[in-house]
Design a protein that fits this description.
Blueprint (H helix, E strand, L loop, with lengths): L1 E4 L7 H12 L5 H10 L8 E7 L2 E9 L12 E7 L8 H15 L4 E6 L11 E8 L3 E9 L2
Antiparallel strand pairs: 1-2, 2-3, 3-4, 5-7, 6-7
Helix pairs in contact: 1-2
Bound molecules: coenzyme A.
């Protein structure tokens, strides 16, 4: 398996947009996710979209974002929009993508990385520390996690 930034394999942008819209898009449009994915293709520091490839096929994605929770703009950067293709789940792709973003953030000098989730017990397995509850716009209670990188 190989993990590449999307701007090196932009042919997977539509696939990733569909994944994110289907997984996280309740109440919003495909265009919203298309905008996020497209904005990761212009070479800016944020956002960066990574793609996991297996035999030339996209099997998962993760983002490195400036902001993933507008109620907590004091916190950055974020591991966000983690998604594994249904046929590729349970094979370590999620852990590999998490590790990739952790390494990427560390290489850029960040000493902490954040994520939020609606479910408990998963990220703890990979050493993420629960850091309390937070609010996803407008009123969804979520679990905040941090990873110390240094
Ligand atoms: C969450 C996700 C990335 C995990 O990928 P994966 O390849 O299945 O991950 P792993 O093999 O490391 O772990 C599988 C475990 O995660 C658990 N898990 C997956 N989604 C879960 C959820 N929504 N709630 C609780 N546990 C969950 C599975 O039950 C499984 O547990 P088990 O090992 O005890 O059987 C994948 O299921 C996915 O893409 N889901 C849809 C998008 C999503 O929810 N992303 C995370 C946003 S925070």
């Amino acid at each position: 398996m190989q993990i590449l930034p999307l701007n090196e394999v932009p042919q997977f942008a539509e696939q990733i947009t569909d994944w994110l819209w289907q997984a996280f898009g309740a109440g919003t449009t495909r265009e919203f996710y298309a905008s996020i994915v497209q904005s990761s293709l212009n070479g800016a520091d944020f956002p960066v979209t990574f793609v996991a490839l297996d035999a030339g096929r996209a099997v998962g994605t993760v983002g490195f974002w400036r902001c993933d929770l507008i109620s907590r703009q004091d916190l950055y950067p974020w591991l966000a929009a983690l998604y594994i293709d249904e046929n590729a789940r349970g094979q370590g792709v999620s852990q590999a993508l998490q590790q990739h973003v952790i390494h990427y953030a560390r290489q850029r000098g960040y000493n902490r990385l954040w994520l939020w989730s609606t479910f408990a017990g998963y990220y703890e397995r990979f050493g993420w520390q629960f850091a309390g509850e937070a609010l996803e716009y407008p009123h969804t209670r979520v679990r905040l996690y941090q990873k110390k990188l240094s």
